[in-house]
Write a structure and sequence with these properties.
Layout lengths: L4 H13 L2 H8 L3 H15 L4 E4 L2 E4 L1 H30 L3 E6 L5 H13 L4 E6 L2 H9 L5 E6 L8 E15 L19 E5 L4 H12 L6 E6 L4 H9 L4 E4 H4 L6 E3 L7 E9 L7 H14 L5
Parallel strand pairs: 3-4, 3-5, 7-8
Antiparallel strand pairs: 1-2, 5-11, 6-9, 6-10, 6-11
Organism: Bordetella genomosp. 12
Family: Belongs to the LysR transcriptional regulatory family.
GO molecular function: DNA binding; DNA-binding transcription factor activity
Length: 300
């Protein structure tokens, strides 16, 4: 048997409305169209489903059994449509992400994984300073942001710690300080630095360390928004110094080297920033899961 869903829908509406004419008005078709739908359904079923007369339409005994099954069929169809709509919505949509550096390879790889899982998704990526990203998330201009946070730093957004990492004092392999035994903060004074902007948390933390040891704050030769491959290339070919996070440093060992100075071995956290009490979309939840999985330590 090959029942038409439109014919079943017309039959159900006739039962609800109590007559063919009212059913036709309700679904916006002509009365003959509804009558033809009922005849096709009865021909396919091989039984009379409705007794039609001047006082309306009434289910036959066979029609009552058919009606119960038809209602379940219609409900299942609506559930199927609803589920498909939700699935389509989950595989599409817009996610606005902020990061502090294009060198955040784990974040970029997580974005790639999200696109692979949801081919219809649209991503907007914004690169900015940590405080700018925090403000953009709080103002609703970004859905979430991944940013570093240092000890004592406070955010107005909600934080979820993704990973812990450290930054080290770095110089070129043959830098004069690389050969010096028992290195001290005062030994750094003759050398200029590659450093973050003046109001960044990293710069303020570094200046505070020097000031707490009664040393002059570092002299900045190059101010950057973030440490990049270009910045490391400059370090490798000059006597400049910089704080470099360990994940970025790995690809440059042999050209640059971390210097053994405990005061400048700085721990920081990488956090996911979201607006306080924000409604988490399916995309936000899935991206958070991808990030956490990517940043989880490997099993031994």
């Amino acid at each position: 048997m090959n029942f038409s869903r439109n014919d079943i829908a017309a039959f159900l509406e006739v039962v609800r409305a109590g007559s063919v004419s009212r059913a036709a008005d309700n679904i916006g078709v002509t009365q003959p169209s509804v009558s033809k739908a009922l005849r096709r359904l009865e021909d396919e079923a091989g039984v009379t489903l409705l007794e039609r007369g001047v006082h309306g339409a009434k289910l036959t005994n066979e029609g009552q059994l058919f009606h119960e099954t038809a209602r379940r069929y219609e409900a299942q169809h609506h559930e199927l449509v609803r589920t498909a709509t939700e699935l389509r919505a989950r595989h599409s949509g817009l996610l606005r992400i902020g990061i502090t550096s294009p060198g955040e390879s784990v974040v970029v790889h997580s974005m790639s994984e999200l696109v692979r899982r949801r081919p219809g998704v649209r991503l907007q990526l914004r690169i900015g300073k940590s405080d700018e990203l925090n403000a953009a998330v709080e103002d609703g201009l970004l859905d979430l942001a991944v940013a570093p946070t240092y000890p004592g730093q406070h955010w107005s957004c909600t934080q979820l710690t993704l990973a812990e990492e450290d930054s080290r004092l770095v110089a070129r392999v043959h830098h004069p300080l690389a050969q010096k035994a028992n290195l001290q903060l005062c030994d750094l004074a003759p050398y200029a630095w590659v450093m973050a902007s003046q109001h960044s948390a990293a710069r303020q933390l570094l200046n505070g360390i020097f000031q707490s040891h009664n040393e002059p704050v570092p002299r900045v030769a190059l101010e950057v928004d973030y440490m990049s491959e270009a910045s490391l290339g400059l370090l490798a070919s000059t006597d400049l110094l910089a704080l470099v996070r360990s994940p970025l440093l790995r690809g440059w060992l042999g050209r640059v080297v971390p210097l053994p100075l405990a005061q400048l071995h700085i721990k920081r956290s990488l956090v996911l920033l979201t607006r306080p009490e924000a409604e988490w979309s399916h995309l936000m939840v899935e991206f958070r899961g991808v990030l956490l999985a990517a940043m989880a330590p490997p099993h031994r």
